């Protein structure tokens, strides 16, 4: 396979460069080792230079699998942008958790280290409520110290809203480089995008294809068709994501879809408008992720949508 593709790139608030398209490495369950290793090897061959993985305290996660692919490649480490995340169970042991991730990945540093969720779990897996220590502000203060070690080139957050970011920014010394959140036309989070852009925080879109559940949507289909018979829905969605100024981390185990997901098209203003307002169609505004719980009137990992600052009702449906 030949790498001939040059991916668009974003400059982070620390001056470092992040390729706009990354390979999402979380397959939905932990420990699918060979699949993840093969996927990352293929992605690197195809031209991906941004890998997004995750460290889980309590399971094998997939850092080791990603690490195996990184070990095999001849691409210099410096040319790969590598992101991993601090698990909810590790908020009280930030440096130790990063060291564990580095050992699993077999690298000396990550380009970006994200606080995966604002809420921490204690040793017995109980979710700490806002105000209980370590709060996400306390965790962030520990993450800020990582920059001096050189083990994380940039730090950021994930699953933060305008509400939780406002609390964080009021006490932070370092502005997060990135906030990684669910973003696709059913959940465009326009207010969060504007808030982050004003503060120099790059949004990364997870689940940017909406898990490819848009196959029947006539708006996206007609935009794809207007760009020629070869253009796919996935390319429309990823192009929309990058054109509105967000990085995107689609996941695919299939080499031809991995290749396709690297090829962006240029959308015109009316196509961008149509995608920006797709969520306004009745029943469309919702999350595509399965970790939303019906408990507490709608929650994720023990925090209500109100605590998270998410305008949703039970089941991940937007108000
Ligand atoms: N920070 C967080 O809390 C968080 C949460 C969730 C996800 N994430 C990250 O975001 C990444 C991506 O999210 P995701 O996996 O939830 O959703 P996604 O990337 O929106 O969708 C993945 C699904 O789309 C299919 N697909 C991929 N490319 C396609 C194409 N060109 N045509 C048709 N189908 C295609 C994949 O199937 P095939 O594999 O068969 O191609 C898979 O079923 C994850 O891997 C993870 O790294 C982060």
TrEMBL record:
GO molecular function, one term: oxidoreductase activity, acting on the CH-OH group of donors, NAD or NADP as acceptor
Assigned keywords, A-Z: NADP, Oxidoreductase
Binding sites annotated in the UniProt record for substrate: 116
Site positions (Lowers pKa of active site Tyr): 85
Highest taxon in the source lineage: Eukaryota
Gene3D superfamilies: NADP-dependent oxidoreductase domain
Statement: the UniProt record of this protein carries the keyword Transferase: no
A Pfam entry, by short name: Aldo_ket_red
Domain NADP-dependent oxidoreductase: 21-278
Alphabetized PROSITE patterns for the sequence: ALDOKETO_REDUCTASE_2 (PS00062)
InterPro entries reported for this sequence: AKR, Aldo/ket_reductase_CS, NAD(P)_OxRdtase_dom_sf, NADP_OxRdtase_dom
Similarity annotation: Belongs to the aldo/keto reductase family.
Protein name as catalogued: Aldo/keto reductase
Native organism: Trametes coccinea (strain BRFM310)
């Amino acid at each position: 396979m030949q790498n001939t593709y040059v991916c668009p790139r974003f400059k982070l608030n620390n001056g470092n460069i992040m390729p706009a398209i990354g390979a999402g490495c979380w397959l939905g369950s932990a420990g699918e080792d060979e699949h993840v290793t093969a996927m990352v090897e293929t992605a690197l061959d195809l031209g991906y230079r941004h890998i997004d993985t995750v460290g889980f305290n309590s399971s094998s996660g997939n850092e080791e699998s990603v690490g195996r692919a990184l070990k095999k490649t001849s691409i210099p480490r410096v040319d790969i942008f590598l992101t991993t995340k601090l698990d909810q169970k590790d908020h009280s042991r930030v440096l130790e958790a990063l060291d564990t991730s580095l050992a699993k990945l077999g690298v000396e540093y990550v380009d970006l280290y994200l606080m995966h969720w604002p809420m921490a779990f204690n040793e017995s897996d109980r979710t700490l409520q806002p105000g209980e220590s370590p709060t996400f502000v306390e965790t962030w203060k520990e993450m800020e110290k990582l920059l001096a070690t050189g083990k994380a080139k940039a730090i950021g957050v994930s699953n933060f809203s305008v509400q939780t970011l406002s609390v964080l920014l009021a006490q932070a010394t370092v502005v997060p480089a990135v906030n990684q959140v669910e973003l696709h036309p059913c959940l465009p989070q326009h207010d969060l995008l504007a808030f982050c852009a004003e503060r120099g925080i790059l949004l990364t879109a997870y689940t940017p294809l909406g898990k490819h559940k848009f196959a029947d949507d006539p708006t996206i289909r007609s935009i794809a068709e207007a760009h020629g018979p070869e253009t796919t829905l996935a390319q429309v969605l990823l192009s929309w994501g990058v054109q509105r100024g967000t990085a995107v981390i689609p996941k695919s185990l299939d080499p031809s879809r991995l290749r396709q997901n690297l090829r962006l098209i240029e959308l015109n203003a009316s196509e961008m408008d149509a995608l920006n307002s797709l969520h306004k169609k009745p029943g469309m505004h919702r999350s595509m992720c399965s970790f939303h719980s019906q408990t507490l009137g709608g929650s994720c990992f023990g925090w209500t949508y109100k605590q998270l600052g998410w305008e949703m009702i039970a089941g991940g449906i937007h108000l």
